[in-house]
Design goal:
mainly alpha
């Protein structure tokens, strides 16, 4: 994962027609408005509420895709598919992978936000 681009700002800016102010607002929103709560995800899965867990992760998949956080969007998509039973995989392992990806992406987002604001 280290060699992959966690945030493609060119793609994120392209998504908002190169409106740097809007892109900066989206980054700020992703960072501050509804941060990911790993305890919530784990609790949903442990309670057998995989569909609800998938919906929760899907929120971050969409938001990540909008800002160019490709790796996080991909990891979220795979986790969603496994939680919904659309593909096979180890949910526990994929949850940990998603959590790591989110943390690394969040760090890059915070650094990028500081540079852009």
């Amino acid at each position: 994962m280290e060699t992959e681009i966690l945030l493609d700002t060119a793609e994120g800016l392209d998504f908002v027609d190169n409106d740097k102010k809007l892109y900066t607002e989206l980054l700020n929103s992703f960072i501050n408005d509804k941060p990911f709560e790993k305890e919530r995800l784990i609790s949903l899965v442990n309670s057998g509420k995989n569909i609800d867990a998938s919906r929760y992760v899907h929120l971050f998949k969409g938001a990540a895709a909008q800002i160019g956080a490709k790796r996080l969007a991909s990891d979220a998509g795979i986790l969603c598919d496994v939680l919904r039973g659309r593909q096979k995989g180890n949910p526990e392992l994929l949850i940990q992978n998603f959590i790591r990806s989110y943390a690394k992406t969040l760090q890059i987002l915070q650094e990028t936000f500081q540079k852009l604001k």
